Here is the input.
Amino acid sequence: MDFTALLRFLEGCRADVDPVRFYSLAKLNRIGYYFLYRVVECGFDIPPGLLEVYGREYERYLAIGRAFVEVSDVLERCGVDFAVFKSLRPYPSTTVDIDIIIFDGYGRAVKCLNRQGTEYIVNSNKIIVEHHIIPWMHKMGGLWTLIEFVSILPRMIIVHTWNLLGYTVICDRYLIDLLVTVSLRINNPLWWLHSILARHLLALQMKEKTIHLDITIEMALKEKKRYRIYIKRVRDNAVTI
Here is the structure.
């Protein structure tokens, strides 16, 4: 019942919580920063080790806010109608990427973002490393496609094995994400439609028992409005920390 106790703490600042033990649980459920934020907000003592973690995550939180603004500036300058979803949560959080829905101007969005020529990758030591790699992905084309395919093979084997055992897998990312990622990185938005490999992967995705979370147009439009408010607060240095 640890998770239930964690939720009760997040909602009502209950005092019967061990910060060290519950941080591990919160981190496992991708709410590690929010848990530490609530510990501080509720006025509880936080061990020195976790206080250091909170400081690092706080800096990440601010950096992510700046990244949201930078992406918004690029897309707005290019006249793209868009909304951010999933990455912007209704509570203070950190993320490793920014998920965007393009309502109008998909081609312009791809070109404008690719012109930036930079991806930020987190290495095994949790350090953000800057790589000017997108142009090389474009040049490698089919070779980069093969590299991406090999990288997902272990996950395909795991999902297939669980399916054979009678389980349904709920995927954060899987083959659909791979097809979109490759299409963008080799600068060919229709690669997933024309490639024989991509069509086979898409057919495989249809056969595997997996669940992907969806978002309605109505919800996306609500996120669009909420995101505009968030960006204004970040620009005004009024975002909740």
In short: The CA atoms of residues 113 and 145 lie 20 Å apart.
